[in-house]
Amino acid sequence: MDPVAETSFENEHKPLGIQFIECIRRRKISYKSYQIVVWVVTFFAYTSFHVARKTLSIVQSVLDPETSEVGLKFSPWSITYVTKPIGKRRFLLVLGDGWSPFNGAEGTALLGDLDLAFLSVYAFGMYFAGHLGDRLNLRILLTIGMVGTAIFTSLFGVGYWANVHNFYYFLMVQMLAGLFQSTGWPLVVAVIGNWFGKKKRGLIMGIWNANTSVGSISGSLIASATLSYGWGWSFLVPSLIIAFVGLMVFLFLPITPESVGANRDEDITKVSTEKVEDGITEPLLSSDSEEKEKAVGFIEALKIPGVAPFAASLFFAKLVAYAFLYWLPFYISHTAIDGKYLSSESAGNLSTLFDIGGVVGGILAGHISDCLDAAAITAASFTYCSIPALFFYRSYGHISLTLNIALTFIAGTFVNGPSALITTAVSADLGTHSSLKGNSRALATVTAIINGTGSIGAAIGPFLTGYISAKSWNAVFIMLMITTLVAGLLLTRLVVSEVAAKVAESRTLT
Length: 510
Description:
This protein is mainly α. It has helices spanning 3-13, 16-25, 31-63, 69-73, 90-95, 107-133, 138-161, 167-181, 184-195, 203-208, 211-226, 233-252, 257-260, 264-268, 298-302, 307-333, 344-372, 375-396, 401-431, 443-469, 473-489, 492-509; strands at residues 273-275, 281-283. The protein contains 22 helices and two strands. A hairpin with a 5-residue loop joins strand 1 and strand 2 (281-283). Pfam families: MFS_1.
């Protein structure tokens, strides 16, 4: 291609922000710099999705301040619990007695319906978003998804100022918000896949996966801080944030190296190389210039060893994780800790410790899996450990604030660790399984199957919690522990296989 024409083609596909930076610097951006830009922009893009997603869980206790007293009055297991609220909760003096139609006898169930509607549309929309992402411009599609999310998140908050009390208004807004949010994960993963090689990135990928927890923490803090001004602001501020990040995506996110004329080979020559057995050097960052084979179909990807059990396990793991994501602030605000009830703002802030534990758990699970080369063993171990963590949190979390903080962090570490591992390292490994014979186009399909199945569980978890909590929070925690046990048992065959492989390997070495 003529150099002038090639430069013109590159500029047509370069984001405007990239063009501006290169104009100021008067030279092209290096491939490594592009990778940093992609990592940072996609990290904050998905973080902002979770900022918007977390809001409703914080506002729930204001919309429905009096519901679930029956369930909250039951003593946890056989331990004495505070049975009656100690006076009016402080936030009720500021924000009133709830918001119709959520402050009635069916308020908790209605909030559960909103969670179910949002996450159901989100789960099934993810499959279609991935399909569109392979055929349309990822940057434009992701921008549309973020702007759409901002619009419908803000429309939920508009209900506060417009004095809307129609349940179906909030239901439709949540469903449309879920549809646009479903573009997030498959598209940011697709962009990351375009810019980084197939080899596991270990700690780097573990840190990148923390975007969900960082988003949840930020969303909790932002929603809690704005709650005292009126719950509508708790939706408006996150919507402005995701709209701004969406603008950054449009201006700065390069989709593929080819679209911006980034030359991977120029950077590879600067990267250290590692020796292979025959003496030939191999770059640490492998080129993706190999000829791509025909994309793997859904059924064929599902037959890859490990995909089905990991997907099924993630279904139950995310059911538990999202039950906490949506209902933990509500649970804390309705639970007496050391004889006192926390305000909605304080409960929201305290719930972030679960997400902080999730960040640690995700990185720790990924690191252990890399060291042991045993993803199933690691995921199952974390899953089984989360059962006693949930039991101790429910049984002893009310004794003191310090103990509650510690138990919340521990529960977040073990509950979120397996989900983080399966959605990143495991998905990447299975997407490049040896049975595919080098087919590099299976990664997106495998990721969609695993994460889409997990998202269905994420939709069911808050829904079940909303209904069961109206009767008893004891029953909620029993359900969560049984679900966690099932998630671990589904990995049994894979754990046995990995143990057998380790035993055979040790015998060979001896």
